[in-house]
Amino acid sequence: MFSCLFDMIDFGFAQYLSNTEHKFAIRGSPLYMAPEILLCHEYDARVDLWSVGVIMYECLFGKAPYSSDSFHELAEKIKNCRNIEIPKGSYVSEECKDLLLSLLKHEPTERLSFDEFFSHDFLDLEHTPTEENYEKAITLAQRAVTADKEKNNQEAFHLYCDALRYFVPLLINETDVQKKKYLRMRINEYINRSEKLKQLIMDSSSNNEKNAETSSQIKEKNLGVLQKLGINSFPYQELRILSKTTFDMASALEMGEVGEQYFAEGNYALALEKFKSSLGILMRVLAKEPPGRRRDLLHQQIQTWMNQAESTKGLLATRMLNDSTTEPIKNNQCLIQ
C-alpha cells in the first residue's frame, strides 16, 4: 500500500527527486497533502482543512509540521502518525493552538468540519472588518453611551465591550492614517470607560456581598423555609448550596468564580479560559437537569457568565491590540497568532 505514494508523484517531481533528493528539503504539494491522500485512502474535502493547517503552521513557525529532507522521510512520518507539536519556546494563544491542532488530525473523522472551522473563535469571522460591521460597531457604541447616561452600568459595560470586538479589527485593517488615528482615539475612550464601569460594578457587588453576608449565612441554614416563602435574594449563593450534591456542577461553579477573580484583576486571558471551562461543564449539566428551582438558577448563572465571557473577549481584544502595536514580531512569526 505504501508504495502507491510514489505512484502519485508527477513526472516532474519524480525527476527532481531522482537527482537532488539528498541535497534539498522537499518543497511543493506533498508537504501540504493530507495523510489519507499520501496513504492512498479514500478522501473527501476535509483534505483541504489539513492543507490549511499546514500553511497556518508554516506561517507561525517558519516550517511545515513534517519538514523533511526527502520524500521517504516525509512518508515515514505520515505513515507512523508522528505527533505534531508546537515548537518549544514558541507561544500561541489557546484559541490558535486549538484550531491548529484540530486541523492537523491524522484521522479525517477527528478533524474539525468546515462549519466548525468557519465558526472557530480564533478566526472570529463574525467581527471581520467590513462596512456592515462598522455600522454594527457604531450602533453598539451609541447604545452603550445611552445606557451609560441612564446609569445602567452593567448594560453599558457589556455594550462597550461588544462594540470593541468590532472596532479592533476595523482599526487593524484601516490604512488611512487620519481615520486610523481617529478610530484609535474613540477606541481608547471606550476602553477607558468600560474599565471604569467594570470597577464600579465590582465595587457595587463587593458592597452588596458585605451587606448580605449575614443574610446569606441564615439562608444556608434555613434554605427550605426560604424556598417555601419564595424568597429569591442572593440566587448565586442559593445555587452554590444546591450544587453540593452534584460534583461536576460544584467544581464548575468554582471555576467560574476563579474566572471572575481573574476578570476583576484584569487578567482577561485566564478569565476567559476559566469561563469557557466552567460553561462547558455547566451546559452539559443543564442539558440533564430536570425542571425545577436548581435548573432555573443554573440557567440564569450560565447566561450571566456567557455575557461576562463575551465582554472578556472584547477587553482581551484591546489588550492584544496594544501588544501587537508595541511589540516587534519575533522569530518571523505571523500576527495570525
From TrEMBL:
Membrane-spanning parts: none
Pfam families per UniProt: MIT (PF04212), Pkinase (PF00069)
Residue span(s) of domain Protein kinase: 1-123
Plastid in keyword set: no
InterPro entries: Atg1-like, Kinase-like_dom_sf, MIT_dom, MIT_dom_sf, Prot_kinase_dom
Localization, UniProt: Cytoplasm
EC annotation from Swiss-Prot or TrEMBL: 2.7.11.1
Protein name as catalogued: non-specific serine/threonine protein kinase
UniProt organism field: Microctonus hyperodae
